[in-house]
User: What shape does this take?
Amino acid sequence: MADNNYDVTVIGGGPGGYVAAIRAAQLGMRVALVEKRATLGGTCLNVGCIPSKALLHSSHLFEEAGHGFANHGIKAGKLELNLKAMMAHKNGVVGDTVKGVDYLMKKNKITRLLGSGAIAGPGSVTVTPEKGKAETLTTKNIIIATGSDVAPLGGVDIDEKQIVSSTGALKLSKVPKKMIVVGAGVIGLEMGSVWRRLGAEVTVVEFLGAILPGMDGEVCKTMQKILEGQGMTFKLNAKVTGAKTAKTGVTLDVEPVDGGAAEKIKADVVLVAIGRRPYTDGLGLETVGIELERGFIPVDGKLQTKAAGIYAIGDVVGGLMLAHKAEEEGVKIAELLAGQAGHVNYDAIPGIVYTSPEVAGLGKTEEQLKEAGVAYNTGKFPFMANARARAMDATEGFVKILADKETDEVLGVHIVGAAAGDLIQECVVAMEFGGSAEDIARTCHGHPGLSEVVKEAALAVAGRALHM
Assistant: This one.
């Protein structure tokens, strides 16, 4: 039993869990990581962030070859899609990435245990493999990092063939002629974009009145226009009440949220992407008196549950369901356990949508600032006015910076445009250090570069953009 004594046992091997394990090991703790999936990385590496980005990039190249190369004087000829090869590339990216995580476990001397983890009591975790005997670990601290699962839609049964979740959408064997995406959030728009580029006719059904719920209103309206221009169709303020599958495809019952005539719409494949819910099944929370709140595990400012020595991070605690947020929380707990000052600034966590163009949001939206009664200045600059963007034929979108009217502190940044997910990072640093729009504006940006759009937006906060 001496070999089963640990300083920290992490339940869940996704980005939050394995990063927490690595940081704890770096700080000298003896660490066990429990994961029931054969490969580490959780949803993100296996059936989420990584494979979707591989397909997004591949499908973008396909579309560029068919529609964008001609503008640059490149004659591509007749294109042919080899979907099998594209999927093989995606699988290779996933395989290499998860192997990298396995290497990190060995490098940091972390004990990797395959099976379902459950809290057996204070300081005790039972690991039950799919086959074989369960074993019990003794541990000083427990970190729950079990992530989330696909949220179900009433009246619609996911079979991962005709009606798919994001998991099934990542491995379709052929391009559907018609695809209906239920949900206009990040996952729905990203996966809808993949299959639209590859030739599918895509209709997006969204319960709310705008796409990308929670993002800045101007960003949402701009992206809807751009995606419609690319060929996507949107049905907003609409709800799906039922689905019927047949050999010829799927028929959805759709009706207006506010009442009105229902309609039936048909597709070869339906993608259900209405969100995710925390995964807490079988964790044994009741053994230590932990009760869920709205489905989430409640934690305090140090991410500790009501049970001493038991912590939770990532999707299971609510907030932004983002891999990088979970990673930061994992590092925070490990450092707190080592007596350091672990920290996460929840006001400076970027959200990114990897459509084309990309979307990135940080901090407060205009709607949130208005609701809170905060006076602010706005600086906005279009990619159209940037020489590098014109050279790339990537002129759609803008950078918008929101700054406090009195102090000029950056309160929010919202970007629609090429490389938005990378461009927003300098603004994350600025916000992390309490920077102002003037700080960004007075920082030298390389020319000619897309980052100059960020600089110009910061200048525009004070009404002094140079190139517009």
User: Anything to note?
Assistant: The domain at 348-461 is CATH 3.30.390.30 (Enolase-like; domain 1). The chain has a mean pLDDT of 97. Residues 292 and 298 are 7 Å apart (CA to CA).
